[in-house]
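Ticket #4471: structure output looks truncated?

Reporter: J.K.
Steps to reproduce: submitted the chain below (429 residues) through the standard prediction queue, then opened the result file.
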Amino acid sequence: MQIIKYPHKEQWSEIIRRPAFNDVQLLASVREILYDIQKRGQEAIVEYARKFDKVSLDDFEVSEEEKSLANKQITDELKQAIQIAKQNIAVFHSAQKQELPRIETLPGVTCWQKMVPIEKVGLYIPGGTAPLFSTVLMLAVPAQIAGCREIILCTPPNPDGTIHPAILYAAQTAGVSRIFKIGGIQAIGAMAYGGSSIPQVYKIFGPGNRYVTAAKQVAGGIDVAIDLPAGPSEVAVIADYTANPAFVASDLLSQAEHGPDSQALLLTDSEKLADQAANETAKQLEQLPRKEWAEQSLKHSKILVLHNQAEIIELANLYAPEHLIIETENYHAVEEQIINAGSVFLGHYAPESAGDYASGTNHTLPTNGHAKAFSGVNLDSFVKKITFQEITREGIRNLAPTLEIMAENEHLHAHKNAVSLRIQNAGKK
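Returned output as attached by the reporter:
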C-alpha cells in the first residue's frame, strides 16, 4: 500500500478520491434495457436472463423442493451461525420501533404520525464469487419486523440453474415470501416493472455490481423507490500507537478482498504504525485465497500519516466512509466527533466482520461519500410515516387567523375560503 506522510489539506480531496469509472455509456445501456423490460415485460426479462445470467429457465421462481433440498445441503454449524446472526439482527432492529406521540399544537388541534410498513419490497442479493447469505438476513429480518406484506428476493443463479443453499436457507429463516433465480439489470427491471412471473414491488433494496447499482439509480429516479446510493465497498481505519498492526492489516484486507474496486484507508499519526501495518498487510496478503482481488483493491488504497488526531478526524469526516474502524486509546472521545460514516466499529476488538455478519447492526450502508447525507438500512427504511391532524371547532377558531392571513398573502383565496367558511359555521350550534 502507498504511504503518504503529512499531506497538505489542499491535497486531501484528491488523495481520498474513490476509484473512478466512466459510467456514461453504462447508464445509457442500462436505460435501454430497463425501457425494453418496461415495454415488453416477461419476454424481455427471459431474453436478458438468458443473455446475462447464461441460464435458460422456464420458471424463475425457486420451488418448495429446491428450498427443502437446500436445508439439507448446509451444515448444522452454519445453520446455527445463521440463526444466531438472525437473532442479533432482530434484537437490534426491533429496538428501533417507535411509539409516536399525539401532539396538541394548539387547543383543539392535534397532530400525529403513524408508521405504516411498505407493502411490497424486493431484495437483491448478489451472486458471483461469494454467496452473500448475510445480506439476506440484513434485509429480510427488518422487513419482516416492519410488517412488509410481501418480501421477494432476486439473486443470480449458478450456471446449472441453482441457488447457493445458504442463501435459500437464510431467506426461509428470515421470512422471505418468494425467491427468484434472476440477477443483474433484468432482476431490477423485473422488480421495478413486474413480469408475468415476478411481481412488481414498491421499493428495492440490496447491493450489487456496477450494472445493478446503475439499474437501481435509473429505475429509482422515476419508477420505484430504492434503499440508498451504494457502490463499491470501502473502509477507513483510524489507529494510533496502541493499535495492533496485525489487527489493522486484517481490517484493511477484509475490505480489499471484496473486489478490485473496493478501497481501504488507514489514517494514523504514528509513522511506526504506518510502516508496521504496511508490512503486515503484505505478509497477510500472501495467505489470502482471494489475493488477486485484494491486490487490485490495494492499488488504490492508502496509508495516510497525519500530524495529529484532530487532522485525522477532519479527514475521516471528509471521506465519509461506509465503514469506520477506530483503534485508538481514546476511541470514545474520537467517535463523539465523527459526523459522517455509515457504521462505526470501536476498539481494538471490533472488526468490520462483526457488523458484516452478526453483531446486530445492518451492513447495507451508503458508500462513495453518501454517508454525509444518507443512513444505512434500518427499520425506518421499510416503513413510511403518514401524518394526521384532527381539528375541532375550538381548534379551527384558534388556527383560523394564521391560516387566513398566510393564504391571503400567497394569493390562494380558495385556501382562505376553506377556512373562512368553517369559521362562519363554527359559531353555529
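Triage note (M.O.): checked the attachment and the full C-alpha cell line is present. The CA atoms of residues 396 and 422 lie 8 Å apart.
Status: closed, working as intended.
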